[in-house]
Write a structure and sequence with these properties.
Blueprint lengths: L1 H5 L7 H11 L3 H5 L21 E3 L5 E5 L9 E8 L4 E4 L7 E8 L2 E5 L2 E5 L4 E5 L4 E4 L6 E8 L3
Antiparallel strand pairs: 1-2, 2-3, 3-10, 4-9, 5-8, 5-10, 6-7, 6-9
Length: 154
């Protein structure tokens, strides 16, 4: 995985980054952002748009904004996913029992999980196993956005 990341062949999930950071003894919040957006005691933490970390696919057609706090990585992750026309976000299987929930906010996308594929339009949500090879595509002419939630097994 490290070799693939270094060669820009894959984008790691937050869970993978979290495990790597723990193995290396590095604070993931410091790695991804100077302002981790932690919750102050008794207050509301506001994370400015410039402080939200983002991952881009090697071809630049897909962007994942990491909306969830780093301390939940490996349990729950949520992202704002933007895919340009013709873009594909392909993923290898995550650990057994992992589920993804994709809610299309604008445009249209298709989801493939294993051998099954479904098309989604604005406002629709797909829930699917992510412990098999899976991909999210934008086959339309316009940019599409979605909320992607990854739930890891307990």
């Amino acid at each position: 995985m490290l070799s693939q990341i270094e060669r820009n062949l894959t984008n790691p999930t937050v869970a993978v980054l979290w495990r790597l950071a723990n193995a290396l003894g590095v604070n993931l919040a410091d790695l991804l952002s100077a302002d981790a957006g932690g919750r102050p005691a008794g207050g509301i933490a506001l994370v400015q748009p410039h402080a939200i970390p983002a991952l881009k696919s090697p071809d630049g057609h897909c962007e994942l904004k990491i909306l969830g706090p780093i301390e939940l990585a490996g349990r729950f992750e949520w992202y704002e996913l933007t895919i340009q026309s013709g873009g594909v976000l392909a993923s290898e299987p995550h650990e057994a029992g992992t589920q993804e929930h994709l809610s299309v906010l604008s445009g249209a996308m298709s989801v493939q999980a294993g051998a099954e594929e479904r098309k989604l339009r604005h406002g629709e949500t797909a829930r699917y196993a992510a412990d098999v090879p899976h991909a999210i595509r934008n086959g339309g002419k316009a940019t599409a956005t979605a909320l992607l939630v990854v739930v890891h097994p307990a």
